[in-house]
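Technical annex B. To support the medicinal chemistry partners, we prepared a structural model of the target in complex with adenosine-5'-diphosphate, based solely on the information shown next.
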Amino acid sequence: MSNPHQQIVRLQAQLRREQLRNQELTHELKQSRQQLEQQRAEFIAQINTQLEHLLDAAPTPEVNADPLVTTQAALETLKARMIRTISHEYRTPLTIISLAAKSLAQNTSRLNPQQRHQCFAQIQQATQYMIKMVNEVLWISQAEAGEIMPHLSKIPLGDFCNRTIKELERLNPQWHDRIQSDLPALATSIYNDPFLLQHILLHLLTNALKYSEPEQAVELYLTVERQTLQIWVRDHGLGIPEAERACIYDCFHRAENVGTRPGTGLGLAIVKKCVELLEGKIGFQSQLDQGTAFCVQLPLVKQSI
Ligand code: ADP
């Protein structure tokens, strides 16, 4: 058995060892943090380089000798696409409503409360889908007519994006946990239009999730530098066929590789309009069966926040 003096010496030696280990750990932690910071800076620099390239390479519309002929032809194509999309996209919810209503009317006494609830839920869901589509068409026509103006307010960026992601996941539980982002680090507040910004995020994220496989992650990155907000949404899904890239922002245009995935071809038209209203730029890079990355650059108004 050791005497108190020996015990104190042993404890002091142990304490010294712990202190040295602590110093080592602090050093390692500092190094890892520096590495992470460096990786993040490199990633942002990489994104910026690609972004410049991407925005410069945005497709420009073809120039035709006779503008009247172009306008006429474009209107005809738009009309045909609109009729096709609306009739196609309305047929499914209308059929659901009709079947559910018929079932409720004809089998009232035979349906149990759960079955009745299911019919009402189907009617509600289908109606909401149709209302959303009509609202989107209306919004675009109002925007085209110059009736929509940006309304700027202070936006805490990190919170705002997290809330948008949560809302998207609430409406589509099957997409839960697929969005990867480093938003908690984003403590910046900006002045912008929250409605337009939310539309941009929601439509770009929805597309990234919809046009990739359920097990594939979707990345969202935001940076604020030199009075510019950059939003970057990247997926590893279907990709956009080369032949379709020039008209991907046109109303009701859908690429031929979408298969049975639902959609109206209005989302990107809305995003483009929102970006225009905020005097920004949009571009994308895509590779078939490898994925797509959309990038938005928005100038920020200087305000004391
Ligand atoms: P939709 O309602 O069809 O998704 P959008 O206007 O949002 O309409 O997109 C137009 C078309 O652009 C889509 O139908 C799809 O063909 C293509 N697209 C948009 N985003 C992506 C993406 N992330 N990956 C692959 N294709 C995409």
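Notes passed to the chemistry partners:
The mean pLDDT is 86.
The longest strand covers residues 291-299.
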